């Protein structure tokens, strides 16, 4: 590996991130084709996985490079695929070999059992030089949703909670309060766009009647699937989510024994109702709920609350990233605490989470924690 390899892989990683949230069930991969010239290396093609998951990143970059790919190096953030599917067409390995690429630099093996090393092996056996593992840790973080889905049958979960300076997420009785500053709210909308699904507990939905869409100029079409954890099926057909279910999907995950009466009106409004068992505490079994989402192709979930869902996810080791923000202003009275004891214990435990980053957006301060084990 050379510093040039790292440099171009960084470029490929940045390109791959562009598709995050819009390629599920596929991972969003980035690819860069680089040619040596007398003046130094030259980027002759770039690509990333396209909306819906196809075309893959490699054919996009290789097509742009055209004949300039002959003898060039392909940087790719995931092992090129080797499988042939009815929907997919030509495997990326074949595209790569036919393009005349001399060397492939990849960040990580694809744990998808259909590929799992075969992509790299086929390239080598065709005389392409292959280096793997370049910035592998960065790629593993970016593609965590894909990795978890194909290895553990669950999506990656980002948990996000905002609180006032005195620690509240809501007012007394769940009353909605303004917590985040406008800049932080916009940042959250961008984060929504980078995930496949937003997930909320029914408590927050009933308290806030949120839209849970992406409201950023030009990016509205990137609104993710809206998932509500609703054990007793309390979702009301008059709520904003339900009224817009025809435009942006709403999936409700209820307990198996939840009453059937409300379901007809929700389904008529375009809501999909799914059912999972209850856990031992009588709540929706989160592991089962996430398994269901992964089965439906979801790789990246943005869990926006509220405090009970956040605590349960953290306690059960299901939150891969935890993003906590604190605003400068106080609520100044009793409210709903944002960080419940189980979540506080999880992030304070150095064996479970580490503080990866601290930053400010507008007036709000953010901390991002990453799961260790
Ligand atoms: C690549 N480049 O850009 C992506 C890859 O359903 P298919 O046929 O599109 O294949 C999906 C699988 O291909 C997916 O599960 C993952 O293993 C890999 N994704 N591979 O070579 C890409 N997105
Ligand atoms: Zn491919």
Strand fraction equals 15-25%
- Ligand kinds: ligand AOF, zinc ion
Please tell me the overall pLDDT: 95
Q: Count the E strands.
A: 16
Treating each run of at least 4 consecutive H or I residues as one helix, how many helices?
13
Shape: globular
List the helices and strands in order. Answer: HEEHEHEHEHHEEHEHEHEHEHEHEEHEE
Please report the distance between the alpha carbons of the first and last residues. Answer: 28 Å
Helix share bin = 25-40%
Task: Tell me what the CATH architecture of the largest domain is.
Answer: 3-Layer(aba) Sandwich
Sheet of most strands: 9 strands, mixed
User: Strands of the biggest beta sheet: in what spatial order?
Assistant: 11-10-9-8-12-6-13-16-15
CATH topology of the largest domain: Dihydrofolate Reductase, subunit A
Count of distinct structural domains: 2
């Amino acid at each position: 590996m050379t510093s040039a390899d790292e440099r171009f892989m960084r470029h490929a990683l940045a390109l791959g991130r562009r598709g995050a949230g819009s390629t599920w069930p596929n991972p969003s991969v980035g690819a860069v084709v680089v040619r040596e010239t007398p003046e130094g290396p030259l980027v002759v093609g770039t690509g990333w996985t396209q909306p819906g998951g196809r075309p893959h990143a490699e054919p996009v970059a290789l097509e742009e490079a055209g004949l300039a790919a002959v003898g060039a190096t392909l940087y790719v953030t995931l092992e090129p695929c080797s499988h042939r599917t009815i929907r997919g067409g030509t495997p990326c390995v074949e595209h790569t070999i036919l393009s005349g690429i001399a060397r492939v630099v990849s960040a990580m093996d694809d744990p998808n059992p259909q590929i799992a090393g075969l992509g790299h092996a086929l390239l080598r056996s065709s005389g392409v030089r292959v280096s793997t593992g370049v910035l592998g840790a960065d790629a593993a973080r970016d593609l965590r949703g894909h990795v978890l889905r194909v290895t553990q049958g669950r999506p990656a979960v980002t948990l996000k909670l905002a609180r006032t300076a005195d620690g509240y997420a809501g007012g007394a009785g769940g009353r909605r309060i303004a917590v985040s500053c406008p800049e932080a709210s916009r940042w959250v909308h961008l984060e929504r766009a980078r995930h496949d699904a937003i997930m909320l507990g029914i408590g927050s939905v009933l308290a806030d009647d949120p839209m849970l869409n992406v409201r950023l100029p030009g990016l509205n079409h990137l609104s993710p699937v809206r998932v509500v954890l609703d054990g007793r099926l309390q979702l009301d057909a008059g709520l904003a989510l339900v009224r817009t279910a025809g435009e942006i999907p709403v999936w409700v995950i209820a307990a198996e024994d939840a009453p059937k009466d409300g379901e007809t009106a929700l389904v008529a409004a375009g809501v999909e109702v799914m059912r999972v068992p209850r856990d031992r505490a009588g709540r929706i079994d989160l592991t089962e709920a996430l398994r269901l989402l992964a089965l439906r192709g979801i790789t990246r979930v943005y869990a926006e609350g509220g405090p009970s869902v956040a605590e349960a996810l953290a306690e059960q080791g299901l939150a891969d990233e935890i993003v906590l923000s604190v605003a400068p202003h106080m609520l100044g009275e009793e409210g709903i605490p944002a960080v419940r004891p189980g979540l506080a214990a999880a992030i304070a435990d150095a064996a479970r989470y580490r503080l990866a980053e601290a930053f400010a957006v507008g007036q709000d301060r953010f901390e991002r924690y990453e799961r260790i084990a």
